[in-house]
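ingest -> validate -> predict -> emit
validate: passed (alphabet ok, no gaps, 329 aa)
predict: started
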Amino acid sequence: MTAAGTHRDDIGFLRLPATKYAQRTTIQHCRKEVIFVNQNSVSILNTETQQTTHALQGLTFSPTSMTTGCGYLAAGGQRSELMIRQLSSTWFAHTVVGGSINNAMSISKHAGSTRLLICNNDQTIKVYSLPDLHLVTTIPLPTAVNYASVSPDGRKLLAVGDTSEVFLFNISASGSYERIGTMTATSDAGFSCSWNQSSERFAVASQDGYVSVWDIRSTNKLAQLASKQVCHDVNPQVKGACRCVKFSPSGSIDLLVFSEHVSYFNVVDARTFDGRQSVSVSPAGLDQHISGIAFAPDSKSLFVGTESSILEYSVDALMRRSFPYGSLN
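emit:
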C-alpha cells in the first residue's frame, strides 16, 4: 500500500474468523439483511435466523447488476433488462432500457425525488424516477460506464468506466447533472467508486490494482492504495485487480474496504490511510473469486460474498471509536 507518510499492515479492524453462511452467490449486497444474486434469482438471507427467501425468482435473465435503496430492489441484465420491486409490497415492474449491458445501478433520494441510475455499456448513465420509471435524463460519457455513485448529501455524482478518467458531476436543485471535473485515477479502467458518509471524500477502484482517494476540495489525490497482490507482484492485473470499493456508511467507524479479483480484500483506516488489514477468503494455495462486499448500515459488520458462501466479519467498533491521541490546532 502506498499513501502519504508511512503505513502499518495487519491492523485488527475486523475480528476473525468470519461467520460463514453456505449460500452460493454471483453478486451480493447488504442492508439489514444480505441480498444476493445467484443465477436467475435474487434472494434475501436473514443472518439472525439464517433463513433465505426469494425477492425475485424465475427471472428471464441472469442479473449482471443489482442494488437496493429507498425501499426498492433493482436487477439489471446483459441485454439492458431491468426488474424493479418494492420491498414493502408486491409491486414490481419489468422493462428494457435500451443500450447494452447494465453494468451497475444505484438508487438514492436526490433532487427532490427517488432516482435510479443505470450505468450502461452504451456510454451512458440513464436516470429514472421511481416508482413511475420516467426517464429523467440520459448522461452521455466518452466511455462505457461501469459504476456511478451519488454522494450521501445528494449534491454530487461520481462515475467511472473503461478508461482511467474519473467524472465528477454537480447535481442542481432542479435535478440536472453538470460535469464539473475530470480526474485521472491510475493507468487502467475504473470498476467501482464510493463516497464517505460526510460527502467530502471519494474513492475509485481500478483494474490495475490501485484505489485512488480524493478530497472533494482538491484535484490532488489524498491517497493511492495498492492491492495486496499488486504489492507482491502476483499476476497484478489479474488477481490483484481492485473490483469493489466501499466506505463505511455510518458512525465514527471511518473505514474503507476494497476487494481484489480473487482471494483478498483490504480494510483501510479512512482517517489517515496509514494502516490496513488484508484478509484472505481462500485456503492457502487456492484462489476464490470475490463476488461483492458491503457494510451493514450501522457499519458494525462487513459482508463478503464468494462463489460458495457469504462471510460476515465483525468490525471492532470500540477500537475505531478510541483515538490513541488527539491534538488541537
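The first helix runs from residue 228 to 231.
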